[in-house]
Amino acid sequence: MIRVLGFGHLVALGINSVIGAGIFIVPGPLARLGIASVFVFLLAGILLHPIALCFAHLGRLTDRSGGAYAYAHMAFGPITGFLVGWVTWITAVLSTSTVGSAVAIYLTYLDPGMAAYSVHCGVLAICLFGFVNYLGVRAGGRTTEVLTVLKTVPLVLIGICGVFYVRPETFSIPESLGSSVFGMPILMTIFTCCGFEVVPYIAGETKKPKEYVPKAILISLWVPILLYCLIQLGILAGGSTSDNALTDQARFLWGETGALLVNATGLISVIGFLAGTILGAPRLLMVLAEDHPLPKTLLAIHPRYQTPHVSIVVTTIAAAGFALIGDIGSLIELTSLAFLLQFFASTVALYILASRGRTKGRVAAVLGTLVTCFFLAQVNLASWLVFVLVSLVGLLFRAYRR
After folding, report:
1. Where are the alpha helices (DSSP H) in 60-102?
2. Across the 402 residues of the chain, what is the mean pLDDT of every consecutive 10-residue run?
């Protein structure tokens, strides 16, 4: 494959992955914490920063695609690496199918009749972006860039305009705040700020990946967090604490036109997530096939478009298939655990590789591992059971192919 993606493509992919559905849901409940809600976002960034630093250090070691899989493979060997890559790919497929079905939810604001076609809209959107990525990584990268700009600009405007309504009472702190900021609020915020870990997925098709990937990872973490802080401050000024606080804030600023703008931005955000996931997940599947006894047809590169077209088709069909099934709620339990698994594998991998003298960053590795262990302790039993099941299926398939 040719290296055609630049620094801007990586930053767009990372920011696109971080700014997802969470920012449309989390600000309202957080606003009940008063001005402390702004600092919750900053706290989330501080907790995630050592993890992002681990990914940045590891990004300097390899120019392969795969992200956490490539790092785990370097540090732990093939079995652990395979488990990380397999679970991550399965989760990407499941997330794509679920988010694809959510396209119709935002379309219902424009046409209530679209609710009856949620499955069809999801499958169509998944197949569309599968086709775009089939035509070339440059096309997929540009699509992600455009969608990232389209969904970020309205959020920036909401944040900037909201600040003009800030009053002294905006900075008040509820008397009953206590230690509640360290419970569910920080966990909700952490999930909203994740996504930077997908940047290395496409390192193998990036110019100067060892230079660009580390920088793009850190930018992808902190630009959305600072934007979230700005939006949260404006929402506090607007006074809404509902689950639709972002829509309420836009309505407060610009009337019903503003509410429509937020709903359109939500739709673009969902579509952007699909574009980014279908760009990265097939590359992960391809490197898995390169290192493990998976069908070698997954390694095929299209002679004209220079894309892993078989891996793209397989990923697209799998995501569309789960979207057609519709109810995969129990499997989605795996999502929160999957990205924590990537964090844990990568932070420990950095410590091991740094101990071998291959890189620096042992302090970041220790801090990142401790933070990740705290998050892992919050994962419910259902997620662990699904993880064990998916891992066993992957290992059995790998053993059968051998």
Report:
1. 68-76, 78-101
2. 87 92 84 88 95 96 93 93 92 82 71 71 88 88 90 94 86 64 70 91 92 96 96 90 87 92 88 88 93 91 92 94 68 72 94 92 96 88 86 89 74
In a domain, 300, yes or no: yes
Exposed (0-12), middle (13-18) or buried (19+): which is 357, by Cβ within 10 Å?
exposed
Owner of token pair 């579509």: 271
CA 94 to CA 92: how far, in whole Å? 6
Cα–Cα distance for residue pair 171/181, rounded to 1 Å: 16
Q: Tell me which residue range forms the domain holding 368.
A: 7-401
Place of tokens 């590789």: 353
- With respect to residue 1, please indicate whether it lies within any of the assigned structural domains: no
Give the whole-angstrom CA distance, residue 190 versus residue 214. Answer: 20
Find the CATH number of the domain harbouring 325. 1.20.1740.10
Number of domains observed in the structure of the chain: 1
- Is the residue at 254 inside a domain? yes
Residue 142 falls inside a structural domain: yes
Contact 84, 241 (CB under 8 A): no
